[in-house]
Amino acid sequence: MRLISFKHANVPDSAPGFVIENQVFQFRDLGFGLLKSHHLEMFSKRSTLEAYKKKAEKTYDLSAVTLRPPFSPTSIRDFYSFKQHVKTANANRGRDVPKEWYEFPVFYFSNTTSIYGHDDTIPYPSFSEELDYELEIACVIGKPGINIFSKVAEEYIFGYTILNDWSARDVQRKEMKVGLGPAKGKDFATSLGPYLVTPDELADRHIGRPGVYDLEMVARVNGVERSRGNWKDLSWSFGQMIDRASQDVWLQPGDVIGSGTVGTGCLLELTKGEGPWLQPGDVVELEIERLGVLRNVVGEKRNQQKNN
Question: Where are the alpha helices (DSSP H) in 125-215?
């Protein structure tokens, strides 16, 4: 099932729903607003969503609604799990892949208050001159768990979506030299969408590793393909990422686990860190088979306004 949150002229606020063959069905009993963590936990306790299919009325054509971020994330842990990207990014810094990368999957926390959806405009951060996209997959946790072993991690995955981890490379570069971060180089924008897709939609492309599928990934800027990779190239599976993230810590419904950038999946890799970078007006499209196309426009640079 493809879950969404959407707006329509006849809906007073964002509303949760699902999509079947370009028709939007509204979850009338879930009220308004984005899909929330307790909705995901409720769905995870059911063996099927057929009851909702029967209960919901067909309401709108997909072309007639405005898609919002498909759900409201409770946390974002973004990993570094595609070796090709890790190797190239380190080579651009004049070094080899750190030996610690091979010991366990590593992540950073991002900002849940700067979330954008499909077709949203991404304001260019006021403090940067080097804006970049990152082509990633995200899995979304559907039920609470702690110390989750990799082999059972898929039981905790509610679904998958596309993630664009927007990056201010000039700021990130300085932060990483200090030894902390990324922080301001990342926290200004994360895009999710267009759908939250349940694993049954992907089952025939599963390759046997927890949370890994044979699905193509593509990024385009202004209609020109810039990046291409495959989900199956993950060096650390989503099962291993969840295992690491949940060590002595509770994961909760709505928590996002990002894959990190697929190989070739950003301008940093493609230009050896030298640019050119994204500019206002650029249209960035991230596409992953079965998950859809996540499109955003780069907006004008933000004016830096401070409260006195």
Answer: 169-178
